[in-house]
Amino acid sequence: MPQPTKTVTAGAAPALRRAIEVLDLLGSVHEPMAAADIARELGIPKSSAHGLIATMMEYELVIRGVDGRIRLGPRLMRWAGGFLGQTNLVSEFEHYFAGATELDDYTITLTVLEGREVVYIACHNSGQPLGLTFRIGMRLPAPYTATGKAQLSTISAGELERLFAEPKDWPAPLTHLGVGSLEQLSAELDAVRRNGYSIDAGQVREGMVCLGAPIKDHSGRALAGIAVSMIRSEATGPLLEALGERIRCAADTLTHRLGN
Amino acid sequence: MPQPTKTVTAGAAPALRRAIEVLDLLGSVHEPMAAADIARELGIPKSSAHGLIATMMEYELVIRGVDGRIRLGPRLMRWAGGFLGQTNLVSEFEHYFAGATELDDYTITLTVLEGREVVYIACHNSGQPLGLTFRIGMRLPAPYTATGKAQLSTISAGELERLFAEPKDWPAPLTHLGVGSLEQLSAELDAVRRNGYSIDAGQVREGMVCLGAPIKDHSGRALAGIAVSMIRSEATGPLLEALGERIRCAADTLTHRLGN
DNA sequence: TGGCTCGGTTCAGTATATTGAACTAAGTTC
DNA sequence: GAACTTAGTTCAATATACTGAACCGAGCCA
After folding, report:
1. pLDDT tens across B228-260, in order?
2. Taking CB atoms and an 8 Å cutoff, what residues of chain A touch B60?
3. Which of A5, A92, A98, B177 has the fewest C-beta atoms under 10 angstroms from its C-beta?
4. What ipTM does this complex have?
């Protein structure tokens, strides 16, 4: 009975799978696409794409612009609102940092891990210019961000390997400091586990330093990550260590408040 | 050939339709559900729900909590980010109101119309307590909100009737001031078209007054709505009129900046 | 403890969703 | 302005996804 091929069981709800692919595609290119382009890009028959997109339009998952091209629709915002409302992560985050006045001058962010990327679900941008304003819904490559490394430090070596073994799995570096190998990443994650907090020193943006820590579920796996960001010139040794402790402590408190 | 029943063509991509229903359901109840509950609630066979949910979990559209119950997953945030990034509505909004310092003390919101509701896609909450903090992803019934009325004022009478003809179509009022009939609403929308801005005086929250205006596309149909909110005691006649003009002017400018 | 309820999972048969091919229409090029 | 390319749409035939029924297993109550 050899059938060990881990084929992705492509035999259930194909319409749904394809719809997901369409939405991912539209989300990754940053402009609308013609229906025929979508079909070509995904390698599905034109007629199938046609029917699928018609149904998706009916529900406003996608909308057709004035030029006839397809773009993401507002229904997606409704679901995102449901996700944010269902998890109390965001409200706990808001509440906690509303009370942490000594961090008021820093930019604080909350993300969830999504594949090889982190997605920002809450942001407190301080007045201080970092060369980057975090926004809800924004995505960045996990291995370069502080929140991403914090979350990756809680998954198993096997899972990590599955995510980042191949060079093609690696997102393009954002600065010349981007890590590039599984060994390097996994050594760094060891350090994260030892210290209790993660560091991104200029891997996302030149001149920006971020410290992150994971919020964990009952099993110890990361549910989300938080980070504090500052400009490089401010990131002196003692302050860095103090803030690292601070963010680790914040993550632990939030982990606890969420019942874990 | 009598087959005039506008049956919702339930013969295309049923898996997708059902997945949408599942996500809507999970988004509307504010807690996780057991798979069997979902099947019962939607009136679909248990086995179908099982297969569907398995596929949805594979893509992290939904996730299974520690108690085995199903909740919305983080993938939805990614799509929302795509939607927000694709439209420059949000960035134009941010940019415009960042420069409008005379409105700094007011709460300003941006919504899109989604069926009978508006969804908040950007919010500037002022310090002033309104008894309600607007949050991204939040939904409110369109006919009670200023942004909703502003957007409804741009659709045809026929469409309006299709949305709100039946009493059962009306969302539950949020305060004792909620409108309740199509006639009343449509008279109010006439006034909105005359004045150029819409008013919600205590229909969303007792003691809160909001003024809204529509951002339009090339055809004159609303693309989004913006509103300014204040507490009732502040909403004196002259100020109200000035702010109404201001928000209408802001909406027109944004309409123009978006190329319409 | 033993029976019962209810959630989750599996599987073969059939109702039906997908698709290849054919067609229209609109833009583009020479 | 005519030929060509390409997007959008339609439809019957068939490959296949959904379903009903049956099977586990855990929790609950008497």
Report:
1. 999 999 888 899 999 999 999 999 999 887 766
2. 114
3. A5
4. 0.76
